[in-house]
Amino acid sequence: MSSSLLPYFLMIPAGLGFLIPLLGRSRIRPADTLAALGTGLLLALSLFTLGKTGKHLVGGWPQPIGITLALDPLSSLMLTLIAGLGLCASIFSIRALDRHTGRSHYYSLFLLMIAGMNGVALTRDLFNLYVFLELASISSYALVAFSAEAEDLEAGFKYAILSGLGSIFILLGIAVVYLCYGTVNLPQLAERLALAPAGELINFSLILLLAGFCIKAGLIPFHFWLPDAHPAAPAPVSAMLSGILIKALGLYALARLLFNVYDLSPGLGRLLLGLGALSMIGGVLLAIGQNDFKRMLAYHSISQIGYIALAFGLGTPLGIMAGIYHLVNHAAFKSLLFLSAGAVEYRTGTRDLNELGGLRARMPVTSAASLVGSLSIAGVPPLNGFFSKLLIIFACVQAGRQGLAAAAVIVSILTLASFMKVQRAAFFGPLKDKWTGLKEVPFSMQLSLFLLMAACLALSLLVLPGLREQFLNSAQAVLSAGIMPAGGSR
Amino acid sequence: MKEGMSLIVKTVARWVVGFIFLYGIYITAEGHLGPGGGFSGGIILACSYILILIAYGRRFASRNLDWRIARIMAGVAALSFLALAMLGMIFETGGNAHFFDNLIRKNLPGTAFHLFSGGNIPLLNLALAILVLASVFTAFVLLAAVRFWETRGKKFFSSLEDGP
Q1: For residue A209, which of A196, A194, A195, A222 has the smallest C-alpha distance?
Q2: pLDDT for residue A387 is more than 70
Q3: How far is A169 from chain B (nearest CA, A)?
Q4: Within a domain: residue B121?
Q5: Of A15, A25, A56, the CB nearest to B79
Q6: Residue B164 has pLDDT above 50, yes or no
Q7: To pair with A135 at 20 to 30 A between CA atoms, which of A57, A122, A414, A436?
Q8: What is the pLDDT of residues B52-92, one digit of tens each?
Q9: Using an 8 Å Cβ cutoff, are A227 and A289 in contact?
Q10: If we measure between CA atoms, which residue out of A128, A118, A158 comes closest to residue A141?
């Protein structure tokens, strides 16, 4: 029975998060071991629940009164992504933190961030969603500033202020919703919204929620925190931030509310389309000129998030499916790219692309990882990015928006150009003299790079008919089904 | 004593701090029957320690409650909160197993609106109060340490680190 398993998605990371700082130092390094074991256990649990449905009543209270945790194919997909990336990032962290102090605090925050994201994916209560969102956000502020250099603290502070502003918008939006409809239970709210006439207050709440979640997602008019926060964070944290945090807290929560509660109207869809197209184009244009490896990746995150928002905004079944597929793929290849950038920084101590060069000869695994990630994000055929981008372009054409389809193609070409520049500057070309003594990164880092490379190749199989129906179409059906039924299994 | 604020502040703080602490305990204990609860009670409890810290200085305050002990208190309180929430998951089976299940109230119902009628809610409140007390106090101590960065802060922060 999968429904009694749901609280473990919160208990395991939260319990370990509080336990780890209490443990002392020892030779078996309890913090690293427990974090890797905990995320591994979460991954096993989430793979077991993948595609299942279930409902857990917290405290045994019936649906509209208590908090409900509910599993459906979409949330189980998110849980799997969170746990998978969490495992790769925590394996990578074992050596990536060599130069940092306060290892147990790092893992504590890391696991609490995972607990928060799991909560956002599972909860069916609007206020509870806010609580988990804040748990994940506040942990991530501290993680961004973890290196505690001046620029990291500045980026962390900027992120805390802007993302805190987003949280305040969301809280105010929830307050207005509660004022109007007297409930924060999502299925009940959806029911009351469908019956009630459209009013100005409810539009006001919608605007507040939209602004708040767009800040969390980093869509373009709200993106200012993102290009600072991602480079400043330690590499595994930026992989988590870009790979899953901006999606779980931003796009997933937004899509859940817009599709399943507010019953996406054509006007809202157009708004999402506009924001998506703006981010998609703007992100890549800002990325091209960057020389900082991780900062460039951060701008590409904005661009790829734009693709997903665009696909969701189309509102057609194919569009939503393509959006979910691209969300999954982006989690794999962007975290691979961030981890390989982190591996380069670990050995060379720099992120400046102009200073690097010819690293392929000295760091073959890192170079291969970055190549796979680059080709995947640029949409080169056998890799996963190609298929999801192709589906997004098909969905645009099918919905009669040829202009957007053309824009998506052009952005894809610009992405390819930008990543070819990275490959040429950092990994190919002649080896610079100062890098001749360079060694490959330690085994644990290579292991997580290998895992993500395998994921990038394997995820392209999701496009095959049997797998597509089982994982992607079922998740898409959750969003296209419209408002969630109050008494049903979700 | 050179540290801390003037004699007036110290005297008044000495008089009121006990009452503030008692009020925090009252708010925490009241939580399952009326307005109150672990969070607000814990904040008030933390305020009493923060008052001592402001009035008497850091050295005197850390003799009352060392931040290292406070850190362990926070962790233990959080874990016991989680353990209480897990009771229902462990001791019940099948459809009855719920997260945050009030198992104690099921077995010892008591009379509603009387003492001992809340089941595990007073215990959850107690754990939460200790957690909030310890973590708010630790956060305040750490913020206060930043002011002494140049003199004693560097040594203080290096004692925080748990090594490579």
Answers
A1: A222
A2: yes
A3: 24
A4: yes
A5: A15
A6: no
A7: A57
A8: 988 988 788 888 888 888 888 999 999 999 999 888 888 87
A9: no
A10: A158
Rounded CA gap, B33 and B122, in Å? Answer: 9
Partner-chain contact B161 A15, CB within 8 Å = no
Tell if the CB–CB gap between A60 and B163 is shorter than 8 Å.
no
- Is the CB of B160 inside 8 Å of chain A's CB atoms? yes
Residues of chain A numbered 96-135 and touching chain B (CB < 8 Å) = 98, 101-104
Q: Does B163 touch chain A (CB under 8 A)?
A: yes
B76-A144-A243 Cα angle (round to 5): 100
Identify the closest residue of chain B to A20 by CA–CA distance.
B75
Query: What are residue A140's phi and psi, to 5 degrees?
Result: -70, -30
Q: What is the dihedral sign for C-alpha A457, A298, A80, A339?
A: positive
Q: Nearest chain B Cα to A69, which residue?
A: B99
- B95 assigned to some structural domain: yes
Say whether pLDDT at A488 is over 60.
no
Nearest-by-Cβ selection for A19 from B79, B99, B161: B79
Q: Which residue has the tokens 């049997």?
A: A466
Compute the distance between CA of residue B135 and CA of residue B102 in angstroms, rounded to an integer: 26
Domain edges within chain A: 278-485
Query: By three-state DSSP, how is residue A125 classified?
Result: strand
**B121-155 per-position pLDDT tens digit:** 889 999 999 999 999 999 888 887 766 555 555 56
User: B61: domain range?
Assistant: 7-160
Q: Number of folded domains in chain B?
A: 1
Of residues A289, A282, A279, A288, the one with CA closest to residue A250: A279
ipTM value, please give it: 0.84
Residue B26 maps to a domain = yes
**Residues 320-379, chain A: which have Cβ within 8 Å of B?**
none
Question: In which band, very low, low, confident or very high, does the pLDDT at B159 lie, cut at 50, 70 and 90?
Answer: low
Contacts of A184 (CB under 8 A, 6+ apart): A125, A126, A127, A128, A174, A177, A178
Percent of chain A with pLDDT over 90: 46
Greatest CA span in chain A, whole angstroms? 71
B2 lies in a domain? Answer: no
- Does B35 contact A at CB distance below 8 Å? no
Q: Name the nearest CA neighbour of B84 among A118, A15, A107.
A: A15
- Residues ≥6 apart with Cβ < 8 Å to A336: A369, A370, A372, A373, A376, A449, A452, A453, A455, A456
Q: Does B103 touch chain A (CB under 8 A)?
A: no
Interval A293-346: pLDDT, tens: 899 999 999 999 999 999 999 988 899 999 999 999 999 999 999 999 999 888
